[in-house]
Amino acid sequence: MAYIKRRLEESVRRALKRNPVAAVIGPRQCGKSTLVKHLREDTVPSVYLDLERPSDLAKLSDPELFFSRHKDKLICIDEIQRRGDLFPVIRSLCDDWGGNGHFLVLGSASRDLIRQSSESLAGRIRYERLTPFLISELDGADWTKCLFRGGFPRAYLASDDDESNEWHESFIQTFLERDLLFWRDFVPETMRRLWKMLAHENAQMINYSRLAASLGVSDMTIRRYVDLLKETFMVDVVPPYISNLGKRLVKTPKVYLCDTGLTCALLGLKSFDELYAHPAFGGCWEQMVLANVRGLYPDADVSFYRTSAGAEMDFVVKKGQRTVALECKASSAPSVGRGTYSALDAIRPDAAYVVAPVEETYALNDRITAIPLSGLGDIFA
Q1: Which of 177, 222, 269, 343 is the most exposed, fewest CB within 10 Å of its CB?
Q2: Does one domain contain both 166 and 64?
Q3: Is residue 104 located within the same domain as residue 212?
Protein backbone atom coordinates (compact mmCIF):
# COMPACT_ATOMS: atom_id res chain seq x y z
CA MET A 1 0.00 0.00 0.00
CA ALA A 2 1.53 3.32 -1.07
CA TYR A 3 2.32 5.82 1.66
CA ILE A 4 0.10 8.91 1.69
CA LYS A 5 2.05 11.98 2.74
CA ARG A 6 0.71 13.51 5.94
CA ARG A 7 0.49 17.23 6.48
CA LEU A 8 2.05 16.85 9.93
CA GLU A 9 5.38 15.48 8.63
CA GLU A 10 7.23 18.78 8.48
CA SER A 11 5.83 19.89 11.84
CA VAL A 12 7.19 16.74 13.50
CA ARG A 13 10.60 17.18 11.86
CA ARG A 14 10.67 20.80 13.01
CA ALA A 15 9.65 19.80 16.55
CA LEU A 16 12.54 17.32 16.75
CA LYS A 17 15.03 19.94 15.59
CA ARG A 18 13.87 22.42 18.21
CA ASN A 19 13.09 20.19 21.22
CA PRO A 20 14.63 17.22 23.04
CA VAL A 21 11.28 15.41 22.82
CA ALA A 22 8.49 15.52 20.23
CA ALA A 23 5.11 13.91 20.87
CA VAL A 24 2.57 12.83 18.26
CA ILE A 25 -0.85 12.28 19.80
CA GLY A 26 -4.14 11.30 18.21
CA PRO A 27 -6.76 8.56 18.06
CA ARG A 28 -5.80 4.93 17.65
CA GLN A 29 -5.22 3.75 14.09
CA CYS A 30 -5.05 7.26 12.63
CA GLY A 31 -1.60 6.65 11.15
CA LYS A 32 0.85 7.67 13.91
CA SER A 33 3.01 4.54 13.63
CA THR A 34 3.01 4.70 9.82
CA LEU A 35 4.05 8.35 9.95
CA VAL A 36 6.94 7.56 12.30
CA LYS A 37 8.04 4.62 10.16
CA HIS A 38 8.20 6.96 7.17
CA LEU A 39 10.14 9.58 9.13
CA ARG A 40 12.62 6.96 10.30
CA GLU A 41 13.44 6.03 6.71
CA ASP A 42 15.00 9.41 5.96
CA THR A 43 16.29 10.54 9.34
CA VAL A 44 19.15 9.69 11.70
CA PRO A 45 19.50 6.08 12.94
CA SER A 46 16.59 5.18 15.17
CA VAL A 47 15.09 2.52 17.39
CA TYR A 48 11.36 1.82 17.74
CA LEU A 49 9.46 0.39 20.70
CA ASP A 50 5.75 -0.51 20.79
CA LEU A 51 4.69 -0.69 24.42
CA GLU A 52 1.80 -2.98 23.55
CA ARG A 53 4.33 -5.67 22.64
CA PRO A 54 5.54 -7.72 25.62
CA SER A 55 8.94 -8.16 23.96
CA ASP A 56 9.42 -4.40 23.69
CA LEU A 57 8.19 -3.84 27.23
CA ALA A 58 10.78 -6.36 28.44
CA LYS A 59 13.55 -4.26 26.87
CA LEU A 60 12.61 -1.48 29.29
CA SER A 61 13.10 -3.44 32.49
CA ASP A 62 15.98 -0.99 32.98
CA PRO A 63 14.92 1.99 30.83
CA GLU A 64 17.91 4.16 31.68
CA LEU A 65 20.31 1.45 30.53
CA PHE A 66 18.38 0.79 27.31
CA PHE A 67 18.05 4.47 26.41
CA SER A 68 21.71 5.16 27.18
CA ARG A 69 22.81 2.36 24.86
CA HIS A 70 20.88 4.11 22.06
CA LYS A 71 21.67 7.73 22.91
CA ASP A 72 23.08 8.32 19.41
CA LYS A 73 19.73 7.34 17.85
CA LEU A 74 16.24 8.78 17.69
CA ILE A 75 14.30 6.72 20.25
CA CYS A 76 10.68 6.22 19.17
CA ILE A 77 8.20 4.98 21.78
CA ASP A 78 4.64 4.05 20.76
CA GLU A 79 1.70 4.02 23.23
CA ILE A 80 3.83 5.91 25.75
CA GLN A 81 0.84 6.48 28.07
CA ARG A 82 1.14 2.84 29.14
CA ARG A 83 4.43 3.58 30.90
CA GLY A 84 4.07 6.95 32.55
CA ASP A 85 7.06 6.14 34.76
CA LEU A 86 9.33 6.65 31.73
CA PHE A 87 8.84 10.42 31.64
CA PRO A 88 11.13 11.29 34.58
CA VAL A 89 13.83 9.05 33.10
CA ILE A 90 13.48 10.73 29.70
CA ARG A 91 13.69 14.16 31.34
CA SER A 92 16.84 13.27 33.24
CA LEU A 93 18.60 11.81 30.20
CA CYS A 94 17.63 14.73 27.96
CA ASP A 95 19.13 17.12 30.50
CA ASP A 96 22.33 15.05 30.68
CA TRP A 97 22.70 14.61 26.93
CA GLY A 98 21.86 18.17 25.91
CA GLY A 99 20.74 19.08 22.39
CA ASN A 100 17.48 18.22 20.65
CA GLY A 101 15.82 15.35 18.80
CA HIS A 102 16.39 12.52 21.28
CA PHE A 103 12.89 11.06 21.71
CA LEU A 104 9.77 10.79 19.58
CA VAL A 105 6.83 9.52 21.63
CA LEU A 106 3.37 8.51 20.40
CA GLY A 107 0.17 8.32 22.39
CA SER A 108 -3.53 7.71 21.81
CA ALA A 109 -4.77 8.95 25.20
CA SER A 110 -4.20 12.61 25.84
CA ARG A 111 -5.31 12.83 29.46
CA ASP A 112 -2.57 10.77 31.09
CA LEU A 113 -0.01 11.47 28.40
CA ILE A 114 -0.24 15.24 28.75
CA ARG A 115 -0.51 15.21 32.53
CA GLN A 116 2.53 12.96 33.02
CA SER A 117 4.74 14.64 30.45
CA SER A 118 3.80 18.19 31.42
CA GLU A 119 4.95 17.46 34.95
CA SER A 120 8.26 15.91 33.90
CA LEU A 121 9.09 17.47 30.54
CA ALA A 122 8.00 21.08 30.87
CA GLY A 123 9.95 23.17 28.36
CA ARG A 124 11.44 20.08 26.72
CA ILE A 125 8.56 18.70 24.64
CA ARG A 126 6.47 19.80 21.66
CA TYR A 127 3.06 18.22 20.95
CA GLU A 128 1.72 17.58 17.46
CA ARG A 129 -1.75 16.11 16.95
CA LEU A 130 -2.37 13.72 14.08
CA THR A 131 -5.93 13.29 12.86
CA PRO A 132 -7.46 10.80 10.45
CA PHE A 133 -6.89 11.77 6.80
CA LEU A 134 -7.65 15.36 5.87
CA ILE A 135 -9.26 16.08 2.50
CA SER A 136 -6.11 17.99 1.51
CA GLU A 137 -4.04 14.83 2.02
CA LEU A 138 -6.21 12.83 -0.40
CA ASP A 139 -5.49 14.31 -3.80
CA GLY A 140 -8.61 14.26 -5.96
CA ALA A 141 -10.66 12.48 -3.30
CA ASP A 142 -14.37 11.86 -3.76
CA TRP A 143 -16.08 13.68 -0.90
CA THR A 144 -18.87 11.10 -0.78
CA LYS A 145 -16.32 8.36 -0.06
CA CYS A 146 -14.64 10.54 2.58
CA LEU A 147 -17.96 11.29 4.24
CA PHE A 148 -19.15 7.69 4.44
CA ARG A 149 -15.89 5.89 5.17
CA GLY A 150 -14.27 8.64 7.25
CA GLY A 151 -10.56 9.31 7.41
CA PHE A 152 -9.06 6.41 9.36
CA PRO A 153 -6.50 5.03 6.87
CA ARG A 154 -7.54 1.37 6.89
CA ALA A 155 -11.21 2.28 6.55
CA TYR A 156 -10.71 4.87 3.82
CA LEU A 157 -8.28 2.71 1.81
CA ALA A 158 -10.36 -0.49 2.11
CA SER A 159 -11.07 -2.33 -1.14
CA ASP A 160 -14.82 -1.74 -0.79
CA ASP A 161 -17.47 -0.48 1.61
CA ASP A 162 -17.97 -3.91 3.18
CA GLU A 163 -14.31 -4.11 4.16
CA SER A 164 -14.48 -0.54 5.48
CA ASN A 165 -17.57 -1.40 7.54
CA GLU A 166 -15.84 -4.46 8.99
CA TRP A 167 -12.87 -2.37 10.02
CA HIS A 168 -15.07 0.14 11.84
CA GLU A 169 -16.92 -2.62 13.67
CA SER A 170 -13.61 -4.15 14.75
CA PHE A 171 -12.31 -0.74 15.86
CA ILE A 172 -15.38 -0.14 18.05
CA GLN A 173 -15.18 -3.64 19.53
CA THR A 174 -11.47 -3.28 20.31
CA PHE A 175 -11.97 0.07 22.00
CA LEU A 176 -14.77 -1.29 24.19
CA GLU A 177 -13.27 -4.69 25.03
CA ARG A 178 -9.55 -3.90 25.25
CA ASP A 179 -8.72 -0.19 25.34
CA LEU A 180 -11.42 0.63 27.88
CA LEU A 181 -9.85 -1.83 30.33
CA PHE A 182 -6.89 0.52 30.61
CA TRP A 183 -9.17 3.00 32.43
CA ARG A 184 -10.83 2.31 35.76
CA ASP A 185 -14.54 2.24 36.58
CA PHE A 186 -15.93 2.22 33.04
CA VAL A 187 -18.53 -0.34 31.95
CA PRO A 188 -18.16 -1.39 28.28
CA GLU A 189 -21.89 -1.89 27.67
CA THR A 190 -22.74 1.53 29.12
CA MET A 191 -20.05 3.09 26.95
CA ARG A 192 -21.36 1.31 23.87
CA ARG A 193 -24.91 2.56 24.45
CA LEU A 194 -23.68 6.10 25.13
CA TRP A 195 -21.49 6.08 22.02
CA LYS A 196 -24.48 5.07 19.89
CA MET A 197 -26.65 7.77 21.45
CA LEU A 198 -23.96 10.36 20.74
CA ALA A 199 -23.89 9.20 17.12
CA HIS A 200 -27.62 9.95 16.89
CA GLU A 201 -26.99 13.37 18.47
CA ASN A 202 -23.88 14.13 16.45
CA ALA A 203 -23.41 17.89 15.80
CA GLN A 204 -26.06 18.77 18.39
CA MET A 205 -25.90 20.40 21.80
CA ILE A 206 -25.26 17.77 24.42
CA ASN A 207 -27.92 17.16 27.06
CA TYR A 208 -26.22 15.32 29.92
CA SER A 209 -29.42 14.95 31.96
CA ARG A 210 -31.37 13.35 29.12
CA LEU A 211 -28.50 10.97 28.32
CA ALA A 212 -28.21 10.04 31.99
CA ALA A 213 -31.94 9.34 32.28
CA SER A 214 -31.89 7.17 29.15
CA LEU A 215 -28.99 5.11 30.45
CA GLY A 216 -30.14 4.98 34.06
CA VAL A 217 -26.99 6.59 35.45
CA SER A 218 -26.11 9.95 37.01
CA ASP A 219 -25.25 13.16 35.18
CA MET A 220 -21.76 12.94 36.67
CA THR A 221 -21.29 9.46 35.20
CA ILE A 222 -22.24 10.69 31.73
CA ARG A 223 -19.84 13.61 32.03
CA ARG A 224 -17.06 11.24 33.09
CA TYR A 225 -17.73 8.92 30.15
CA VAL A 226 -17.84 11.81 27.67
CA ASP A 227 -14.59 13.15 29.13
CA LEU A 228 -12.94 9.78 28.52
CA LEU A 229 -14.18 9.72 24.91
CA LYS A 230 -12.82 13.23 24.49
CA GLU A 231 -9.44 12.45 26.04
CA THR A 232 -9.03 9.36 23.84
CA PHE A 233 -9.93 11.49 20.80
CA MET A 234 -13.19 9.65 20.13
CA VAL A 235 -15.38 12.75 20.43
CA ASP A 236 -14.87 16.48 20.03
CA VAL A 237 -16.75 18.91 22.27
CA VAL A 238 -17.14 22.43 20.83
CA PRO A 239 -17.92 25.23 23.30
CA PRO A 240 -20.32 28.09 22.61
CA TYR A 241 -18.95 31.42 21.43
CA ILE A 242 -18.32 33.94 24.21
CA SER A 243 -19.68 37.41 23.54
CA ASN A 244 -19.61 40.64 25.50
CA LEU A 245 -22.50 42.10 23.57
CA GLY A 246 -25.23 41.12 26.01
CA LYS A 247 -26.83 38.66 23.60
CA ARG A 248 -28.74 35.70 25.04
CA LEU A 249 -26.30 33.06 23.83
CA VAL A 250 -26.75 29.37 24.48
CA LYS A 251 -24.27 28.01 27.00
CA THR A 252 -24.39 24.29 26.22
CA PRO A 253 -21.53 22.79 24.15
CA LYS A 254 -22.04 20.74 20.99
CA VAL A 255 -20.66 17.22 20.63
CA TYR A 256 -19.23 15.57 17.52
CA LEU A 257 -17.82 12.12 17.02
CA CYS A 258 -14.22 12.18 15.86
CA ASP A 259 -14.83 10.61 12.46
CA THR A 260 -17.78 10.35 10.08
CA GLY A 261 -17.02 6.71 9.32
CA LEU A 262 -17.40 5.85 13.00
CA THR A 263 -20.67 7.77 13.11
CA CYS A 264 -22.01 5.77 10.18
CA ALA A 265 -20.89 2.50 11.78
CA LEU A 266 -22.55 3.30 15.11
CA LEU A 267 -25.75 4.25 13.24
CA GLY A 268 -25.67 0.96 11.32
CA LEU A 269 -25.35 2.64 7.92
CA LYS A 270 -23.77 0.44 5.24
CA SER A 271 -23.33 2.78 2.25
CA PHE A 272 -23.25 6.41 1.24
CA ASP A 273 -26.76 6.06 -0.19
CA GLU A 274 -28.03 5.02 3.25
CA LEU A 275 -26.23 7.96 4.84
CA TYR A 276 -27.63 10.39 2.26
CA ALA A 277 -31.18 9.30 3.11
CA HIS A 278 -30.57 9.47 6.87
CA PRO A 279 -31.26 12.50 9.11
CA ALA A 280 -27.58 12.32 10.16
CA PHE A 281 -26.37 13.42 6.71
CA GLY A 282 -26.17 17.15 7.45
CA GLY A 283 -24.54 16.59 10.82
CA CYS A 284 -21.91 14.33 9.25
CA TRP A 285 -21.03 17.03 6.73
CA GLU A 286 -20.64 19.51 9.61
CA GLN A 287 -18.57 16.91 11.46
CA MET A 288 -16.23 16.46 8.47
CA VAL A 289 -15.74 20.22 8.21
CA LEU A 290 -14.81 20.37 11.90
CA ALA A 291 -12.36 17.47 11.58
CA ASN A 292 -10.57 19.23 8.73
CA VAL A 293 -10.48 22.55 10.58
CA ARG A 294 -8.95 20.82 13.61
CA GLY A 295 -6.31 19.18 11.46
CA LEU A 296 -5.45 22.28 9.46
CA TYR A 297 -5.43 24.73 12.38
CA PRO A 298 -4.56 22.78 15.55
CA ASP A 299 -3.81 25.93 17.55
CA ALA A 300 -7.00 27.78 16.59
CA ASP A 301 -9.90 28.32 18.98
CA VAL A 302 -13.12 26.82 17.61
CA SER A 303 -16.58 27.62 18.96
CA PHE A 304 -20.15 27.91 17.67
CA TYR A 305 -22.57 30.82 17.84
CA ARG A 306 -26.26 30.51 18.65
CA THR A 307 -28.79 32.78 20.32
CA SER A 308 -32.25 32.14 21.68
CA ALA A 309 -33.56 34.39 18.89
CA GLY A 310 -32.33 32.01 16.18
CA ALA A 311 -29.05 33.59 15.06
CA GLU A 312 -26.58 30.77 14.37
CA MET A 313 -23.11 30.09 12.97
CA ASP A 314 -21.78 26.54 12.91
CA PHE A 315 -18.17 27.45 13.67
CA VAL A 316 -16.30 30.56 14.74
CA VAL A 317 -12.58 29.94 14.22
CA LYS A 318 -10.08 32.31 15.80
CA LYS A 319 -6.41 32.06 14.86
CA GLY A 320 -4.17 34.77 16.21
CA GLN A 321 -5.90 38.09 15.66
CA ARG A 322 -8.14 36.88 12.84
CA THR A 323 -11.63 35.42 13.15
CA VAL A 324 -13.39 33.40 10.45
CA ALA A 325 -17.04 32.31 10.46
CA LEU A 326 -18.01 28.99 8.87
CA GLU A 327 -21.51 27.80 8.01
CA CYS A 328 -21.84 24.20 6.79
CA LYS A 329 -24.34 23.24 4.09
CA ALA A 330 -24.48 19.71 2.63
CA SER A 331 -25.85 21.00 -0.67
CA SER A 332 -24.31 21.67 -4.09
CA ALA A 333 -26.43 24.85 -4.25
CA PRO A 334 -25.96 26.31 -0.76
CA SER A 335 -27.87 29.29 0.57
CA VAL A 336 -28.04 30.94 3.97
CA GLY A 337 -30.90 32.49 5.88
CA ARG A 338 -31.59 35.39 8.21
CA GLY A 339 -30.09 33.59 11.22
CA THR A 340 -26.70 33.40 9.52
CA TYR A 341 -26.66 37.11 8.71
CA SER A 342 -27.74 37.97 12.25
CA ALA A 343 -24.80 35.92 13.52
CA LEU A 344 -22.44 37.74 11.15
CA ASP A 345 -23.70 41.08 12.43
CA ALA A 346 -22.90 40.02 15.99
CA ILE A 347 -19.58 38.23 15.40
CA ARG A 348 -18.17 40.67 12.83
CA PRO A 349 -15.58 38.18 11.51
CA ASP A 350 -12.72 39.04 9.18
CA ALA A 351 -14.17 36.60 6.64
CA ALA A 352 -17.20 34.33 6.32
CA TYR A 353 -17.66 31.15 4.31
CA VAL A 354 -20.26 28.54 3.54
CA VAL A 355 -18.52 25.16 3.29
CA ALA A 356 -20.43 22.97 0.85
CA PRO A 357 -19.86 20.16 -1.69
CA VAL A 358 -19.29 22.66 -4.49
CA GLU A 359 -16.66 22.31 -7.22
CA GLU A 360 -15.10 25.74 -6.87
CA THR A 361 -15.01 28.85 -4.72
CA TYR A 362 -17.47 31.63 -5.54
CA ALA A 363 -19.09 34.58 -3.77
CA LEU A 364 -22.66 34.14 -2.60
CA ASN A 365 -22.75 37.91 -2.05
CA ASP A 366 -20.45 40.62 -0.71
CA ARG A 367 -20.53 39.13 2.81
CA ILE A 368 -20.08 35.40 2.41
CA THR A 369 -18.23 33.05 0.05
CA ALA A 370 -19.01 29.44 -0.83
CA ILE A 371 -16.02 27.08 -0.72
CA PRO A 372 -15.43 23.33 -1.09
CA LEU A 373 -13.75 21.32 1.67
CA SER A 374 -10.45 21.74 -0.14
CA GLY A 375 -10.80 25.50 0.29
CA LEU A 376 -10.52 25.31 4.08
CA GLY A 377 -6.75 25.50 3.78
CA ASP A 378 -7.01 29.07 2.48
CA ILE A 379 -9.49 30.64 4.90
CA PHE A 380 -6.73 32.45 6.82
CA ALA A 381 -4.68 33.35 3.74
Answers
A1: 177
A2: no
A3: no
